[in-house]
Amino acid sequence: MGHASITVPRIGPGGSRSHHWAARITIGGVAALFSLGVVVLARSLGRVEVVGGSMAPALLPGDRLLLLRRPLGSPGWPAVGDVVALNDPREPMRVLVKRVADIDQSAGTVTVLGDAAEASTDSRTFGAVPRRALLGRVIYRYAPVGRSSRAPWPPRYASG
User: Fold this and answer.
1) Residue 11 is part of which domain span?
2) Domain of 112: which CATH number?
3) 99 neighbors 55 (Cβ within 8 angstroms)
4) Same domain? 80 vs 150
5) Alpha-helical regions (H) of the chain
6) What's the CA dihedral at 88, 94, 97, 99 to 10 degrees?
């Protein structure tokens, strides 16, 4: 299958038209770049649902969140106050949603806490977690209807 292309005329000195190879836009190339962008975007985003009340009142059970995963080749350290999703260090198939309380880049660890300390299993229980345990930073709550909003949600909710 051939590639269609569009030649954009270039106006030269004195108003003359010339066709220059640099002014050629290949539709197949544009489509390939678009497809690559879609794949990169899909790999950069994730979704998670809040289960339990450890992040109340900022996040409630049933809230559905959009994550921005760590870009390839990036150290991807979150900031203190960011809400992140991570694998539970005790049950790696379980996903937790917590707020970053502290970062130790020298040790390669992150301390995560739930906003509602009495309802949270977090670094107070299992200690700081390795950076690689983080699945991504929460950037948006897309459901339920009426609760959609951008992150971050104020860290003032944290009960430390």
Assistant:
1) 5-44
2) 2.10.109.10
3) yes
4) yes
5) 27-44, 123-126
6) 0
Q: What is the pLDDT of residues 42-81, one digit of tens each?
A: 568 899 999 999 999 999 999 999 999 865 455 668 899 9
What is the pTM for the complete model shown? 0.70
Structure tokens at 32: 């390939």
The DSSP output letter for 55 is: T
To 5 degrees, how large is the angle CA 52–CA 56–CA 58? 125
- Tokens 């379980």 -> residue: 94
Neighbouring CB atoms inside 10 A of 33's CB total 11
Same domain, 18 and 97: no
* Residue owning tokens 């670094």: 123
Do 101 and 54 belong together in one domain? yes
